[in-house]
Amino acid sequence: MVKACILGCSGLELTHREAEFFRRERPLGFILFGRNIDNPEQVKRLVADLKASAGHPNVLILIDQEGGRVQRLKSPHWPAYPAAGTFARVSNDIYEQRELVRLSARLMAADLYELGINVDCAPVLDVPLPGGHDIVGDRGYGFDAETVAVMGRATCEGLLAGGVLPVIKHLPGHGRAVADSHHALPVVTATRQELEAVDFLPFEVNADMPLGMTAHIVYDAYERKHPATTSRKMIRLIRQKIGFDGLLLTDDLSMNALSGTMTDRVKAARAAGCDVMLHCNGKMEEMEAVVAHSPRLRGIAQKRFEAAWARLNKRIEPVNIDEARLRLQQALSRIDKSSPRRTDPTEAFADTSLAAMRELGGV
């Protein structure tokens, strides 16, 4: 019996208590954060131990490796990658942008694949809009839905080619949120017409992807009480209107946007229709509540998982890593010389992104 939950762990190696707990409860998978990462050999050992402790063959190992501000694997052991919003500053040619986005994702997949990590919680398909909180900012690929849709798909393709499953997030759209859902519950007041024309479009274009993640956001045009993660109406919208039929993960259940006990949160997300409960902070007492109330992986959720697992390439796309890194570095270096700075919601993060780019070839 596999539990439909993904859990964290507390440090660089499993404690005896964690290993016993995971062996007993058999979670579907695990997610890694900075607290779990030191060097490549240590990460490989931890990943192997996590997979062994789960007690079943098809264990998902997740990580947030977007580039820019959000990347758990960092220098000096791993290259730094540019934020999603950087690529538009490299070239005005959307076809070149798309090529570079895919190339960057393919290189990130190579890093993850080497460690045994098989899921990247990317791409961000949120469209950052004026007035929105900067939690998205340069994590978004652009400021119009079409660009985000195209570049998000390029990221998915690059990850899949490298043997890593993408997770489209945050369904059905985080770009209008005026608060960070890590700390508070955002309420989006846009009309249905606005949401359907902009926010939903990138997810509709990428609805065939294997994994998706919900947003802890209230969309009061549809549902005034519950955030999407715990709203039957919004999960139905994700399934029927947006058309996503992949395995649907909650965003982290320990985030402060959600209310109630951990038991309350799991029960609400499960009742709303989420397939898999995601809990990230590695706190044992909270994980005990998560697994106690997470469903077994069965029925339609089991079929969705099997379909997602089948998308993992048995033979990954060949790539010359050194040549690919050089190609990306050369393209990104043009930003200093020819790309005008844009006045947009990601402006505050441009310097951080540039610093990341300059490290790209240094590993």
UniProtKB/TrEMBL annotation:
Q: Which InterPro entries match?
A: GH, Glyco_hydro_3_AS, Glyco_hydro_3_N, Glyco_hydro_3_N_sf, NagZ_Beta-hexosaminidase
EC numbers listed for it are 3.2.1.52
Name the source's superkingdom: Bacteria
The Glycoside hydrolase family 3 N-terminal domain covers which part of the protein?
29-312
Describe the reaction catalysed, as an equation: Hydrolysis of terminal non-reducing N-acetyl-D-hexosamine residues in N-acetyl-beta-D-hexosaminides
Cited Gene3D superfamilies: Glycoside hydrolase, family 3, N-terminal domain
Q: Which GO terms describe its molecular function?
A: beta-N-acetylhexosaminidase activity
Q: Which PANTHER family match?
A: BETA-HEXOSAMINIDASE, BETA-HEXOSAMINIDASE-RELATED
Question: Which protein family is it in?
Answer: Belongs to the glycosyl hydrolase 3 family.
Task: State what protein this is by name.
Answer: beta-N-acetylhexosaminidase
